[in-house]
Amino acid sequence: xxxxVERTLSALPALLGPxxxxxxxxxxxxxxxxxxxxxxxxxxxxxxxxxxxxxxxIASLKAMVSAPTTTLRLMKECMVRLIYCEMLGYESSFGYIxxxxxxxxxNLLEKRVGTLGYDLQSTNxxxxxxxxxxxxxxxxxxMIPAVLPLIEDKLQHSKEIIRxxxxxxxxxxxxxxxxxxxxxxxxxxxxxxxxxxxVMAASLHIYLEMIKxxxxxxxxxxxxxxxxxxxxxxxxxxxxxxxxxxxxxWLQIQLLRILGLLGKDxxxxxxxxxxxxDESLRRAEINHNITYAILFExxxxxxxxxxxxxxxxxxxxxxxxxxxxxxxxxxxLGLKALTCVIQQDPNLxxxxxxxxxxxxxxxxPIIKKETLEILYRITNGQNVTVIVQKMYAPxxxxxxxxxxxVFSVGGDALHPDIPNxxxxxxxxxxxxRKEDEQLRTYAVxxxxxxxxxxxxxxxxxxLQVMIWVLGEYSSLATDVDPEIILTRLHSLLKKTFVTSDTxxxxxxxxxxxxxxxxxxxxxDKLIKEFSSSLDTCMRQHAFELKHLxxxxxxxxxxxxxxxxxxxxxxxxxxxxLDGFVVEGLSHGAAPYKPHHQRQxxxxxxxxxxxxxxxxxxxxxxxxxxxxxxxxxxxxxSFGSDTSGNSAETGHKETxxxxxxxxxxxxxxxxxxxxxxxxxGKPDEPQAxxxxxxxxGRVTDPSASQSxxxxxxxxxxxxxxxxxxxxxxxxxxxxxxxxxxxxDVATQKFKRKSKINETQNSEEASDIQNSDASTxxxxxxxxxxxxxxxxxxKHTRLRKPSLCSSDTVEDNLAFETPQSLKKPGLNDRLxxxxxxxxxxxxxxxxxxxxxSSSALCESANKTSSVPSLPKELEELPHSEVxxxxxxxxLALYLCxxxxxxxxxxxxxxxxxxxxxxxAVNLVFEKAExxxxxxxxxxxxxxxxxxxxxxxxxxxWMDKICTQGILPGSxxxxxxxxxxxxxxxxxxLLDFIRPMEMTTEDFGxxxxxxxxxxxxxxxxxxxxxxxxxxxxxLQQKLKLHIVDIIxxxxxxxxxxxxxxxxxxxxxxxxxxxxxxxRSPCSALPDGLLYQCQKxxxxx
Amino acid sequence: CGATCLHAPWQRCWxxxxxxxxxxxxxxxxxxxxxxxxxxxxxxxxxxxxxxxIGGSDNKLIYRHYATLYFVFCVDSSESExxxxxxxxxxxxxxxxxxxxxxxxxxxxxxxxxxxxxAEMVMGGMVLETNMNEIVTQIDAQNKLEKSETxxxxxxxxxx
Lengths: 1097, 160
Prior knowledge:
The complex is a heterodimer.
Chain A: H1 2-19, H2 27-43, H3 47-66, H4 72-87, H5 96-113, H6 120-137, H7 144-154, H8 160-176, H9 185-192, H10 197-213, H11 222-233, E1 242-243, E2 246-247, H12 249-263, H13 267-283, H14 289-304, H15 309-324, H16 328-341, H17 346-351, H18 353-360, H19 365-377, H20 384-390, H21 396-410, H22 417-428, H23 433-452, H24 460-473, H25 482-493, H26 500-514, H27 521-531, H28 536-550, H29 552-558, H30 578-586, H31 595-606, H32 617-624, H33 684-711, H34 714-726, H35 733-778, H36 790-798, H37 808-820, H38 827-832, H39 839-845, H40 853-861, H41 870-873, E3 881-885, E4 889-897, E5 902-910, E6 916-923, E7 929-931, E8 936-942, E9 947-956, E10 962-972, E11 976-986, E12 991-993, H42 998-1007, E13 1010-1017, H43 1025-1036, E14 1039-1044, E15 1047-1054, E16 1058-1067, E17 1070-1077, H44 1081-1096
Antiparallel strand pairs in A: 1-2, 3-4, 4-5, 5-9, 6-8, 6-10, 7-9, 10-11, 12-15, 13-17, 14-15, 15-16, 16-17
Helix pairs in contact in A: 2-4, 3-4, 5-6, 6-8, 7-8, 8-10, 9-10, 10-12, 11-12, 11-13, 12-13, 12-14, 13-14, 14-15, 14-16, 15-16, 16-19, 18-19, 18-34, 21-23, 22-24, 23-24, 24-26, 25-26, 25-27, 26-28, 27-28, 33-39, 34-35, 35-36, 43-44
Chain B: H1 8-12, H2 23-38, E1 47-49, E2 60-66, E3 69-75, H3 81-99, H4 104-109, H5 111-121, E4 122-123, E5 126-127, H6 132-152
Helix pairs in contact in B: 3-6, 5-6
Subunit structure (chain A): Adaptor protein complex 4 (AP-4) is a heterotetramer composed of two large adaptins, a medium adaptin and a small adaptin.
Family (chain A): Belongs to the adaptor complexes large subunit family.
Domain AP-4 complex subunit epsilon-1 C-terminal (chain A): 992-1095
């Protein structure tokens, strides 16, 4: 290594030489003094000493160079040393001007000496060149006036290289101090018109910069720039300027940028450049890196200037080339281009959505980041959730600070899930232990600083988060004395704005910290203070702390470090008391009823409000202390608390999955069943035969579809699904067609999840089965697997091997509802081709049969009855109703409830004997609804006595129970006529079942924050939970996720993708409904509908 | 991945203020840049979004990998990425011409020449010259001058 240093040093004078050409005579003393400086530096042992030495050196140099007595020789020597200092990274800008002077002097010297006998002219040239190079690299602002005239002179120099460098130097000056070079603007113009291309190119830098600041001042130059570009593109430049046979690519890039700036928002200027841009696009076709650079600039310019559709089309194609390129650099630029243009042209994103999705999982983080940028730009109300899920925190600091902001601003209005999830994230951490610790330490420090500020008010929830983190992880910040933290917490305890709830958190934190410190004055003080507190809770905490402090070993065992995620094994069933209970019962004691049950009974008698919080499982599973408490059937453990009680044998049937009564999901009327009689068992054979027929019809298309399906890989489908959620609401055409494809994918998925679900529920029933058996030892009054108990029978049916005695009939009766359980629209096709049994499904779900009376009625009215096209006929749809009519034209409407939208099929029927021209259908803008494509449709001509139809896809924009979508239809017969009409749309038109597993339901439930709870009375006709739920399922298109005991969970979504979850529970004739949704208005709307249907039925 | 050579002064060329960055910062920039660049696979793109170190998100690192060497340019948004990639190519080809089969030792021992070449191409942070022949001519002229001076002032420096 020292050898390298040695050689570098020997090369040093060469470096200094050219910059200070006159340094020659001073060389010997210079090198020796420099040598001694270098030697003394290398002899030093610390950075500190070096700094000191250099400072001394610089100070002495400064004095020397400013002194007028300093000889030229000495000056040069000083320069050498200065340069060395600067190389080491020390500030020595004061020397620059001397260096420049020196260089100039050098020239003079050379000129004056003149006797040296070599070609003065050429030497001078090179030296001037170098002086200019130096000027443009390092130059202090205040020295500009001194050298400006010199440089201006050089603009007239005969050699182009000098002129070019002079221009470049001026550019540098412009950057540093724009106002100092203002007076020479016309000189820039001269440079632009220079006969040498290089000089002109150099001047473009300046122009780019100036136009960036003020584009309006240079519009007159547009034609010149266009001219230049035309010449360059046309290959008029000398061949020297070609790079890989592309004429002056960098120059082209520069020009394109300038044009972009000039043409922005200026149609007239843009007009001038369309031709040349087109030409550039066309010429840049050689497959080389640099042509792509030009193409990219072209595309950016085209999208920046006033648009011209022809060019835009070409540019879009170009972007496609980039995005689809296998070359990663081009892909990156393609994404970048997309990012820029996506707001102007969202359809482009739709075209490339699959590529974008792929890039989201690209191994290169840069590509990933750019993709996220695109997603960020296309974020809208419909896809924001999905997109945000794809984002991530750049680093720990950002994350903690963002959360701090969220907590301080959101305050106590925050949903409790947010702080809870945040704490869980901190506690559970990631895979990387080191990173976890960094995150936690960062959090601790950040909170300590926040708490340092006296008299700052923080929301309770934020305080609790801070306190918990300090209690749990403060020891990670090793340099902070725990005593300081304890003092902070102690002072918080005395603040008036701290609620008693938060005080409990503080005490817990103090206890945790105490377990990690030996002894602390603050803790002693705290114990003393609160042992006599009037607040019993605090007193309790203080006593606990006191006793724990007396037994440090116990305390350490009790409060191990970072154990918040470890499961604490608690025998919540209190099984160790079994003996005691049995004894009590045998002595005639009344069986135990949990507190809430007693309260409920009391309340239902009193018909009073229900105060019991029946939501989060924790409370109920603890309080139930029933036998079932040991195994909660779902992740959520919707406390199946009632089942564990001997007093409730009547309820026991609900212990297993309730499958009865849900059989009839989709009646013959299709989606919106009306007055269909209860689908009883007598109907079934009929339905079955009918189902077979239908099945035959349905299977064919689905078979061909399934072929198509198999050609996609699972992964691809997943991506498509993601794509449809991400690009929702972006464009219309492409979006819809893609969603069409999507159906296929989702079906597959839902199928899969269905299987899972079946497994889940099977497990659940297993568990419940074993629950039932555990009744034995404790409550021997209850017969195990009581034969007449319906619920148990079902349980056994699940496992035919265990109960061979049961009949096949039963099995069948069981299977049918099983396959019917998920009547989602998506499933229809997949169901129909999966098993013969599931064909029943179709018979029940199927298709609106136009044989109903409605059709006959309408048939009476007009001769030509519009009917839905084939592909829509198979989807659930409403009757065809008349919207308006005149003697010439009638307009009919049919609502088709598609999976992804509501489709309004409109039929315009010409009743006359002659053709109608220019029939224009327009929907007005409605507050609540959004028509996905254009709100208008034009039938150019409707032949006599014939029907034309058009389709409009509608989403609900703002939630309302019912709204009106007004419109009008105008036509030309003898005279211009116009008919007005309105379409009534209800919330239910936009509600679709949402398939999910119980587990997913649980996760989603916890993440949602808008709550609506209501108890409604159940009518005697539907007193069982399952009856009530099936009503909801039929009428509201909710999807029954699971039924456990007297609780049921349902899910639906508002198109396009706003979920709403419903948790139902029955008790003594009441149905408690609990909605949750990310959208606050949705639960209200649904609740209203629920109440309505429950009253109606 | 072998010896790697990153030259801080190259980045300094792009430092618009012309104020020297302290050595510590220089070293840190080099370290971080090396850390970032060397971690990247062969099949990822040649652009790196800048961190705070290189002056915020507007700036970008563009690099090319030649055998054991990384050539890293730090540019702001006014440069064309692909243009810079090709500029690096021109730079390396020019180095190759000037040094006749350039290798990393040339760059280490003649860092001054490397700087001169770069200064011909990039002046004051702007691309000035991309014509290789022109650059080589300039450099040759400078070399000639340097040699003649060396001769005149009887420099003790040995020829390379």
